[in-house]
Amino acid sequence: MARRERNAAEKTKPKRKFSLRLKARLITAFILLALVPLILLTLVVISQTRSTITAMVEDTLSDQARRVAESLASSIQQLTYDLDNLAVNPSLEQMAVIRPTTAMRELGLENKTIEEMEAIMAETRNLEANTRTQEFLVSNVTDFQRFSQLIVVNTDGMVLGATERPDRFMHPDELWFKAALENGKYISDLQQLPDKDEVGLVMAAVIYRSSSLSSGTPRPAGAIRGLVPVSYFSKAIAPIVAEIEAGELQLLSSGQVVLGIQNTPQGTEVSVFSAGTAPRAIALATDAEQVGQTSIGAEAITASAQVDLSMVPAFGSSWEIRIAQPTEQALTLVQRLSTLGYAGIALTGLVVVIVAILLARGITQPLIQLTAHARDVAKGRLRQYKPKRLRRDETGDLTLAFNEMTTQLARMLHRIRSASEALAASSQEISAGMEEMAAGAQNQSEDVHAGTKQVEEMNEAMLNMEKRAEEAVSLSQNATTAAAQGEVQAAEAVQGMEVIKQSVDSLSKQTGEIGKILGLIRDIAEQTNLLSLNAAIEAARAGEQGRSFAVVAEEVRDLAIRSQKATEEIEQVLRRIQSETARSLESVAKGQLEVGDVREALKQITKAAKETEALVQQIAAECQAQTARSREAVALFQSIGDVTEQTAAGTEETAASAQNLADLAQKLQEIISAFQEQADE
């Protein structure tokens, strides 16, 4: 009894673990329900704020880029306007119109080549044709600080006045000089300024004779050239860049960076670049890359604007302004907001965890108490559960249902005890009857096994008989095949003898023809002999004149005699051939008769072999059928034996089950007696 209680207590231990897991699940559910929406909402707000601020920064940078582009366009337009005003200044016109003959004579420049004049004027490269005009140019550069250098040249390209020593004295072959005379104005692309270590613009305008302006065909008197360093433009751009925290601005001319301004903690830094020292351009954002990059590759929000120079027709370059602000500085507000959001989530999470623990404890505590009471019920103490305070919620309903279950369980145990006693008695009776049936089934199984063994021996004999019948069929088939082959070979022999007979007959006919030919040759030889004899007689009559003819006649006679002898020998050979041919024909005829008899005998043998083969095949078929029937009988007996064995086994199992049922009924009575039927209200 105590052992069963310990086993029951061990089985109830995992229940405690389950209650802890339930508590953890409830806490997790509360946390998820409270925090997940908050986290998602915070992330959405941060994302939307980031997008909004990014768009605002982009709009601000775009506006600043447009302001810079407009400022540059306005500056270039103003420079063009200032240079045009200088070109129509009377002092400059007078300087250009009056040819400096005296100065040239004094300096020895007359009738000199350009190279010689350059060498002579290497020190100043300036004729200084008019001192007052020279001072006017210097004051213009000093006061307005737009042009770093101004020079005035006549139509020969000779420098008449300059604010400082120019790059050369003669300019007739310079691009700016030719383009200005041809088009009236000239503005270069950003380039290395002549004789200076900085990049800028070269601007030029034609100085016309005022007297020719009214005629409709103005005549140039010279040209004025001004050098504008790119740093001039940075003065207007730097204040705008200073408004952008850690901002960077680049001026690109035809895709090449020529000016860079950065807002650093130390202040605004301006950098002017030549073709070989230009840094990488600010990378603008694209559809593939949502953010751009600064010149050093840092992630940044970027914007750009094209400088509209359409109002300056002489300007042929394309300028672009690019502004970048690193996202680290541009999105500082977003980062602060994110920090506050994450801190709020952490604080809210702490509060949610505390509340979830309290709620989970309120739900799981009654369940733990009810579980402890259930363990008492499992140990056999059937009593009502009376909590200190009955809750008016689902746990209270569960308590009432559990007490009702305890009452019904006590009643059920009473009914089970009565039924188990009746079941134990019936099981004993069934077990005794099943044991008797098992003994009878065992005897029947032994008889069936004996019959099966006899049928199997008969089946083995039929299998041997079937094997012998199959061998007889094989032998009869071989005999039939051999007889058929012999018959075919006999027919072929008859045909071969017929061919031999025909050949021998043909040979006999040919030898007869040869005999006829030999008779003809013999007659010819006899006549030839007679002719030779007559010729000899005639030669004897002729005497000496017929001696040579007699010799020929003698030779012809000898030839005729030899022909007769050869003919006789051939005739003897032909007689022997004809004799042998006749005997061969008799042998062939006799062989044909004998082969015909053999062929007829083989036909009879073949017929008999086929009949024997058919009879043996019938016997083999009957043996196979009998073998199949004996196999069926063996299978039937085996099936009967299996069924009998299964019946016996089933009977034994039924008897064992009945005994087990009786034992279970006894154990059930013992278990029921362990419960204390206490159904307190």
In short:
With 681 residues, the chain is an alpha+beta fold. 69% of the residues lie in helices and 11% in strands.
Question: What's the structural domain tally?
Answer: 2
Report the sheet with the most strands, covering strand number, pairing sense and barrel closure. 6 strands, antiparallel
Please, what is the CATH homologous superfamily of the largest domain?
Methyl-accepting chemotaxis protein
Q: Quaternary arrangement of the chains shown?
A: single chain
Secondary-structure element series:
HHHHHEEHEEEEHEEEEEEHHEHHE
What's the CATH architecture of the largest domain?
Orthogonal Bundle
Total of DSSP H or I helical runs spanning 4+ residues: 11
CATH topology of the largest domain: Helix Hairpins
Descriptive account of the structure:
There is one protein chain. By secondary structure, the chain is of the alpha+beta class. The protein has 2 domains: 270 residues, Beta-Lactamase (2-Layer Sandwich), CATH 3.30.450.20; 278 residues, Methyl-accepting chemotaxis protein (Helix Hairpins), CATH 1.10.287.950. The protein contains 11 helices and 14 strands. The strands form 3 sheets. Strands 1, 2, 3, 4, 5 and 6 form a 6-stranded antiparallel sheet that branches. A 6-stranded antiparallel sheet has the order 9-8-7-12-11-10. α1 runs antiparallel to α7, α1 runs antiparallel to α9 and α10 runs antiparallel to α11. 20% of the residues are buried.
